[in-house]
Amino acid sequence: MANVLRADRVVFRFSGPDAHRLLNDVVTGRIPDGPIETASAWALLSPQGKILAEGLAGFAEDALWLDVHQSVADDFYKRMRMYRLRAKVEIEDLRDSHRVGFATEPSAIAHRDRLGPVALGYRIIAPVEASTGWAVDDTPYQSARIAAGIVHQGNDFPANDAFAHDIGLDILDGIDFAKGCYVGQEVVSRMKHRGTARRRPVIVSGIEASSGSPVIAGGREAGKLGQVVNGTAVAILRLDRITDPKAVTVEGAPVTVTLPSWAAYKFGEAVVEEGE
């Protein structure tokens, strides 16, 4: 497969002696402190634990390279410059000079796009002039990650709308539970230990509706569809409302709901409420 342009992703380059410490102290994931083959998943959270930005982090050419959805790029850049304070870190916004892509073989700056057991080829980063031959239709990538139950900010949910557990980062190696504090860490830890994750990614197929349409289970809305590609989407749904997976509908039409192969959760699971 040819390299595929992911036109909705923006890349930032973090360099300097304090780059690793800054990122490791602010985002959820295991930030690499040297060359690695596989990129690290991460999220930047609000103090209330909601996802403000998410993506992959890889080390190459003496710097850390992080990508985010274009809808949150300005806010991410602003926040990281604020968190930098007096740290010796240079943060470069490369949206005018570099492009992010997907490939089945490594090229340019490449790191494996692997979330837990889910392998999605390689995230590649290259200067604009080197990306001119990349395919512009990213349907193959979107189809692959939707089929695997991988949720992406911007495509499936907006900023400040979902918790890290809602998109499965606790299962997909996007949270380092062993490291010290980071922004929103208390909320993440509480959800892990109290079992208060209300929503989880669910694959919905047989769709004849648009992204954002409500998913109805037991006469109640369980969540909304993410990006729809070839009649399939990933939706972040309330598991406790799906007591009969065969009775789920979208816009009055029946759909099929399945759990990702990596899911450590089940339909109909009751949610332990805070304080119980």
Descriptive labels:
globular, 4-stranded antiparallel β-sheet, Elongation Factor Tu (Ef-tu), domain 3, 276 residues, 4 helices, 5-stranded antiparallel β-sheet, Alpha-Beta Plaits, TrmE/GcvT-like, alpha+beta, 2 domains, transit peptide
Structure write-up:
With 276 residues, the protein is an alpha+beta fold. It has 2 domains: 4-148, Aminomethyltransferase beta-barrel domains (Alpha-Beta Plaits), CATH 3.30.70.1400; 195-258, Elongation Factor Tu (Ef-tu), domain 3 (Beta Barrel), CATH 2.40.30. The protein is globular. The chain contains 4 helices and 16 strands. Helices cover 14% and strands 33% of the residues. It has helices at 19-26, 73-84, 139-147, 185-194; strands spanning 4-5, 9-15, 40-45, 51-60, 63-69, 90-93, 98-103, 109-115, 118-127, 199-205, 214-217, 220-224, 232-238, 248-250, 253-254, 256-258. The longest helix has 12 residues, at 73-84. Strands 3-4-5-2-6 form a 5-stranded antiparallel β-sheet, with helices on one face. The protein has a 4-stranded antiparallel β-sheet with strand order 1-7-9-8. β3 (40-45) and β4 (51-60) form a beta hairpin.
